[in-house]
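Supplementary Methods, section 5.1.

A reviewer requested that the exact input to the structure prediction be made available. We therefore reproduce it here, unchanged from the version used in the analyses.
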Amino acid sequence: MAAHVDATFRPLPTGGELKLARRYRQPVEKVWAALSTPGRIAEWMGVEWLSGDLPLSEGAPFDYRFHDSDLESRGKMLRFEPPNLLEHSWFDNLPSRSVVRWSLAADGGGTILTLTHVFQEPEDAPRTGAGWTQILETLAASMGEERQSEGGVEGWRAQRDRYADAFPPEATRDGRLAKEDGKPALRFERLLARPVDEVWVALTEPERIARWLTRAEVEPRVAGRFHLNFKGGDSVVDGRIMRWEPPRLLEYTWPEKEANGSSLVRFELFPAGAGTRLILTHRLDAGGDLADFASRWHWHLNALDRALEGESVAFDEPRWRLLRKVYEMTLPAR
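The structure derived from this sequence is encoded token-by-token as follows.
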């Protein structure tokens, strides 16, 4: 069952704006009480409230911990205008910081709640939108109204996929678990602002690879080496190029010593207007930690965006740890 939530995503130069609107049968004052009372917030958001029992006010902390993980959001109340508007920062403690605004408008005897989430950096909007949709439904249930969408992990995944279909391509950034030749595979699809030829160079020339991935040695031919040196030599991938079709397709093996086997990594590039549609597939023939692979590729693909603009991006461990927690919660079990 699809949620009765109107959801849109608008890309911004440094991130994006996710907007969700839902009608409640309750008057504005009752919805406001649920939004602005710490004990009520903890109930319908399904979190442990960390900011004490003092009433909310502008400048006050807005901190909580998710029950299903040790993930915490530390924020601050930016605007508090009873009974119509509440705005707070989200994840000030971890990159990338964003802002969430809850606004209420009377609609007959009921209320239209509009939630606006502004990302300061690119983020996966379908995942975030599906999470907020479920929270908007638990808010309804806390006020005695029926849920209008499926709950639980499977309901969240179904809603995420609906939003991925409905939102523009820039909105979807997460990797998904798929199957290839009977093996589990992680698949990412990204839109990049630069043309195919420039992206090919960033994927295949050692100096450019070092800006977003790690130190590399590349023999540009089929059967040539594709050697990656992570963590100053503590982690080495000594692969072989299986397919080399400039500037469209690169495929190389990814040996995994601990698993005593090898995986396969494939980059496919397609023109997309003035830019490029990149598809990364990592087929995990030798098994391995899905959340670890997914979160690292996610981080490095984000770094590729910036490297294409000339930056050299150092590995950001706090951001990677957050991504890992996200994938631990959202990837389906194999």
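The mean pLDDT is 93. These observations are discussed further in the main text.
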